[in-house]
Design goal:
266 residues, alpha/beta, Undecaprenyl pyrophosphate synthetase, six-stranded parallel β-sheet, 8 helices, binds 3-methylbut-3-enyl trihydrogen diphosphate, binds magnesium ion
């Protein structure tokens, strides 16, 4: 323990922090409606333990379950997890195929449980370019859970923010050609209907683990006014307690959306 944390100020700080984290209760109106997470650091977590990088991905999967569970418990309505980017194909073939198998197996394993918990599972990304078996399973899982309303779990697989914007532009241009839409009639609202997240609120909070402080092509359109939270914890070490700490930090943020005091949190 650091000497400074023994000082009265240090103790006070720790007590305050504990209180804030404990005050995160299910249904708290100060909670974000939509949380997005860049789950990073699996490889470094494994290397630190002299394990292959793939062991980090396996360990990370357990955290996906825990955080999903915590969102259900707290009543958070949308959780988006970045699992594989359009750039992650640059990784060694072996790691990529390990990940594809892991997605397939875990999806098979967890879907029934999540369905019982009324979780709607959606996928963000270029799904058709995944191994055909995985693409088929994804479509099945989306259809099976489509009516669930407790939590929407978005899994971003083969997802890139720029790709998402370009495919939205294509959709919009096609509509414009078919229906004779005037360019000046195109609105932000109309545009968002072509995004993978159509109909969903933008993330209120984005968390990135592992110490990197960048967006890595994640939800470029949707994060215009998202609160960002960075932690040096590797994803397999991130758990519900640290998740609640991030939520407590979010609650203290003052969101202004370019205005002055509107939306201010106490
Ligand atoms: C995140 O962990 C998982 C994926 C991108 C699939 P990484 O695999 O990027 O782990 P680090 O960043 O190399 O430690
Ligand atoms: C971002 O992590 C993508 C996912 C977590 C799926 P990366 O590890 O791929 O990002 P960079 O390369 O460090 O920016
Ligand atoms: Mg990484």
């Amino acid at each position: 323990m650091k000497l400074s944390s023994l000082s009265p100020k240090g103790i006070l700080h720790r007590v305050r922090r504990k209180t804030a984290v404990q005050s995160i209760q299910p249904g708290d109106p100060g909670l974000p409606k939509h949380v997005a997470i860049i789950m990073d650091g699996n490889g470094r977590w494994a290397r630190k333990r002299n394990l292959p990088r793939t062991a980090g991905h396996e360990a990370g999967l357990q955290i996906v379950r825990e955080i999903t569970q915590e969102c259900v418990r707290l009543g958070i309505k949308y959780l988006t997890l970045y699992a594989f980017s359009t750039e992650n194909w640059r990784r060694p073939k072996q790691e990529v195929s390990f990940l594809m198998n892991l997605f397939y197996q875990s999806l098979q394993e967890v879907t029934t449980d999540l369905h019982h918990e009324e979780v709607r599972i959606r996928f963000l990304g270029n799904i058709d370019q995944l191994p055909p078996k995985l693409t088929a399973l994804i479509k099945e899982v989306e259809a099976q859970t489509a009516q669930n309303q407790r939590l929407t779990l978005n899994l971003a697989i083969n997802y890139g923010g720029r790709h998402e914007i370009i495919q939205a532009v294509r959709g919009l241009v096609q509509k414009a050609q078919e229906q004779g839409l005037e360019p000046e009639k195109i609105t932000e609202d109309q545009f968002t209907r072509f995004l993978f997240t159509a109909g969903q609120p933008d993330p209120d909070l984005m968390i990135r683990t592992s110490g990197e402080q960048r967006i890595s092509n994640f939800m470029l359109w949707q994060t215009a006014y998202t609160e960002l939270y960075f932690t040096s914890t590797f994803w397999p070490d991130f758990g519900p307690a640290e998740f609640r700490a991030a939520l407590a930090a979010y609650k203290k943020r003052s969101r202004r959306f370019g205005g002055i005091k509107e939306g201010r949190r106490k």
